[in-house]
Structures are given as C-alpha cells and as structure tokens.
Amino acid sequence: MEAKIPLRGVMVVVAIVCLGTGELMSLKSGAPKAEAAMSEPENNGPVASVRVAPIKEGSVSTYIMVYGDVVPAPGAVRVASVPYEIRVNRVMVSTGQKVSRGDPLLEIEPSPDTLLQLEQAKTSYKISKQNLNHVKQLFDLKLATNTQMLKTEETFKQASSKLENLKKMGVDGKRIIRSTESGLVSNVNVQEGAIVADGQPLAGVIGQNHLEVRLGVEPNAAERLVSGQSISLSPVNEPALKQVTGKVRKISRAISPSTRLVDVFVSLPRSCGFLLGEYIMGRIETASSYGMIVPRSAVLPEGGKDVLYTVGNGHAVKHAVQTGIESGNEIRVSGGGLKHGDEVVVLGNYELKDGMSVKVEGGK
C-alpha cells in the first residue's frame, strides 16, 4: 500500500529544505567578504592633514636693533661769524632750511661800540697823518731827527692799517652774511636785534651730503663691532620704504652720560634722503651661519631633542635634527638625513607619529 502524505506536510518539508539551502548559500557568499575586510591595508586608519614647505639652502643671521639720529659729519658744518661786535638786523633762514652757495643768511651792521672804534680809528689816522706831514717839514729844515721821523712814520702806518682792516671787515656799514656752500642750515644762533660779540657763531650750514647717523649701542654689543662694518638703516616712521646701508666710521670708547649707551657713528651713502635730526633704526648682524634652513614651525621638541617630519609615500617620516641660528621665522638645521628640497611639515605636525598616514593640503 502506498502511504499518503498530506499535502501540507510536503510543503513544510520543502520550505525547510529551501531555508537550509538559503542559509548555506548565505554563509558561503559571506565568507569572501570577511576575508576581504581582514585583508584591507592599515592606512585606512587616522589620516592627518598637513601643510609642507621645502628645505632651503642658504645663510641665516641674527640681528640686534639699535636706534639713533641723523647728525652732521665731522667738519661738515661751516660756521658764519665776524671778527667784530655786531647788531643782527635780519635773520633770513631757519634751522633745517636748504640753501645754495651764495644764499643770504643774515643781515648785520656794526654795533655802537664797533662804530665808536671806527671813528677812533679814523681820528687816529687823521692825526697821525698830520703829524707825519709836520715832522717831514721839520726834518727837511733839519729841525727833526731821524728817530723822530721814523717813529712818526710807524705811528701813521699803524693807524692807517687799523682803519683799513676795519673797512675790509665791513665795519663801515651794513653787511649780508652769505652761505659759502650748498647744504642745510644746521642752526641759527642769534635773534634779530641781538648784539653779538666778535667771533661768536651766527649760523651754521652743513655741506650737502655731509650727514651721518649716531646710534646708541649696548656696551657688550659695541665690543663686537668693527670699523667698516655694514649696518642696515631705515627711518623709524617708514622702515620698509627707505632702507640704506651705512658703514661704521667710529666706535666711541666711552658711555654717553645722557643715554648710558656707546655712540657708534655710521657714514651714509650720498643722496640717502635722510633728514637732519631724523630718528633712525639700525639693524646690526651679530652672527651668521650657512646650511639647510626650515621654517621655525617645522621643528618640535621631543624628549630633550629636536625633531621634524617630512612626507614620503603618503606617510610621515620623523627626523632627529640639530638646530643652529634662528632668525625671525627661520632656523638652520642639520642631521637627520635631510637634503635640500625635502618637504618638511610646518602645520599639523604636533599630532604626527612616525609612519602615520598624511594628506598634504594643496595636493603636494
């Protein structure tokens, strides 16, 4: 007899078989995925975003900043004066004014005392001349001796010479004092209406292109300077627009009582454009070194030494380096197997570890 299996039972068995087959297929198809996940490269871990800069080769120097002002160079000032007492009628220039050779500076005239000396000289000349004529007449009549004649002649010569000198000096009237060369008026020492003694300075003119800079330098820094050394100079109010290079002319061996610094005098090139009395900033090089130069931000302290990172094949490479002279944003480094042109990490390097995956911003 054939056994009859209910239709519902057959359907259940088929469902079970199909379910088992499906699970089996699912397990077989899932195995390759697990193997692939396990074999993925490790660089799918953290990736640091960094910026880099190339290693340069050159010199880096350290500087000290000093300050001073523009002053006349030695022998540059031509002082106007007269050898007799005067009254100042007019002052025609002011300090700092540019003048040309022959330009008027002052108008003067003899003082009352000088005019009195002139009148006395004229009187002496007149009297001595009359005496000379009289003695000559007596001498011709054999009534005067040779000694008397010689003495009278000497007196006349002295009186005549004194009067002539006063006239040559311009004592007999008003006079214009003019500049003897082109340049700048360094100072005016008198005022209108003033009585000025003989030989006293009236005004000074600095010869054109005869200026220098006086810098105040700390004593320990001044010891490292030498004559002829170059110093970069610029006005304090516009340091980037007007820069010139001067040469150390003289280093003082005494400390200035007003500044407590050592005065260093620096010669200026012609047509430097600096103004008399202008406040100047000087940059003096104190040390210099040649080698590989990197941005200061590339070097990190680590365990009492200095390290930096380069990028190779998408990974960070750590280098132990020795650092040298630092100036501004640059520092000289050596060692670590570095070479000119290597790219060093300058931003994002604090989170790096040796071998860590990196992504260079900008596509480098």
Can you put this structure into words, describing what you see?
There is one protein chain. The chain is 24% helix and 40% strand. It contains four helices and 21 strands. Helix 2 runs antiparallel to helix 3. The N terminus is likely disordered. A six-stranded antiparallel barrel has the order 2-11-14-13-12-15. It has three domains: 85 residues, conserved putative lor/sdh protein from methanococcus maripaludis s2 fold (Beta Barrel), CATH 2.40.420; 90 residues, Efflux pump adaptor protein, beta barrel domain (Elongation Factor Tu (Ef-tu), domain 3, Beta Barrel); 130 residues, Beta Barrel (OB fold (Dihydrolipoamide Acetyltransferase, E2P)), CATH 2.40.50. With 364 residues, it is an alpha+beta fold.
CATH topological fold name of the largest domain: OB fold (Dihydrolipoamide Acetyltransferase, E2P)
C-alpha end-to-end distance: 86 Å
Number of domains: 3
The biggest sheet amounts to: 6 strands, antiparallel, barrel
- What's the rounded overall pLDDT mean? 84
What is the CATH architecture descriptor of the largest domain? Beta Barrel
